[in-house]
Write a structure and sequence with these properties.
- Helices cover 44% and strands 8% of the residues.
- The chain is mainly alpha-helical.
- A 3-stranded antiparallel β-sheet has the order 2-1-3.
- Helix 6 packs parallel to helix 9, helix 8 runs parallel beside helix 11 and helix 11 packs antiparallel against helix 12.
- 31% of the residues are buried.
């Protein structure tokens, strides 16, 4: 049940990473271990709980907490980027999941009924957690009250008064709680295909090629697709997305398959058995897209 692949993945780790909720809970019921000390970590030092928080698997987390399958240090274990599982839940605006994680262990001498994730973050004096919840969550979270009518700011001031603690962390938290984050999205003008040129300029656009290169980076490997297209075709007709046609996209999948001879992607959780799709690699959204317009090599033509 807790056997590991050569990449140190357990069956539970793979199931959680793939967001297989029911399978993950069943594995826990059958004795799979979830703690950071025996559940394994990935190369970025993410534990099973990091992945569960990022994938908003609140049912799995609640089951693990209710059945005492987690320890306090599991909740606040940091990955290589310095983020804990509650941080990842906050970045996804998963309030209930963040609240489950933060409330683990309870709060001493506090009435915690109806506390939300932001109340818990304030109680723990976690500046980064407060910041992430304010930025990624709806503005109403700042105004939500607990069972005795305290907003996160009022709770924070009450705790600081009792502790006599008004250091830098206190004021940083207060600043975030008093910040009205402007979530109004800027108006994006409708993109329209430009009017094609005519005459000599059209000839240049039709006879000159541009180059599009997509780079995809995954698990220490890189995959590249290069496409050459007439400038006219990309700029005035299809656009770069359509220009990277099915044949070019297929190249990424084929390279991934060829790489499978030396890298067992099925065990590492990136390629399902019998599937042509490489999980974790979206061929339609490359890591980097480079478009080269070689007009610096073409003499400027003046249209009469």
């Amino acid at each position: 049940m807790n056997a590991r692949t050569k990449y140190t993945d357990t069956p539970l780790f793979i199931a959680v990473r793939r967001k297989l909720d029911s399978i993950s809970v069943n594995l826990l019921k059958k004795g799979a271990r979830m703690g950071s000390d025996d559940g394994g970590v990935d190369p970025q030092k993410n534990t099973i709980l990091h992945w569960a928080a990022q994938n908003n698997m609140s049912g799995l987390i609640k089951y693990a907490i209710d059945n005492r399958l987690l320890q306090q240090n599991d909740i606040f274990k940091k990955n290589s980027n310095g983020f804990t599982p509650p941080h990842l839940a906050a970045m996804g605006a998963y309030e209930y999941t963040a609240r489950l994680l933060l409330s683990f262990g309870g709060a001493e001498n506090q009435q915690t009924t109806n506390w939300k994730a932001l109340h818990w973050a304030v109680y723990m004096e976690d500046v980064n957690m407060v910041k992430l919840l304010v930025i990624h969550g709806p503005e109403m979270w700042i105004r939500e009250q607990d069972s005795v009518g305290r907003t996160p700011e009022e709770l924070h001031n009450g705790i600081a008064s009792l502790k006599g603690n008004e250091g830098s962390a206190h004021f940083q938290i207060l600043d975030w709680l008093q910040t009205s984050v402007n979530r109004t999205q800027p108006e994006i003008p409708e993109l329209k295909i430009p009017t094609p040129p005519c005459g000599a300029r059209e000839i240049v656009c039709r006879t000159t090629s541009l180059y599009i290169m997509d780079f995809q980076f995954l698990e220490g490997h890189s995959y590249t697709v290069e496409k050459k297209n007439p400038v006219f075709d990309v700029v005035y007709r299809r656009g770069p997305d359509d220009a990277m046609d099915i044949a070019a996209q297929r190249q990424l999948t084929m390279e991934a398959k060829e790489h499978n001879n030396s890298y067992d992607m099925s065990e590492s959780g990136f390629l399902d058995s019998g599937s042509d799709d490489k999980e974790g690699m979206d061929v339609n959204q490359p890591s980097i897209r480079w478009i080269h317009l070689p007009f610096n090599n073409v003499s400027t033509l003046k249209q009469d």
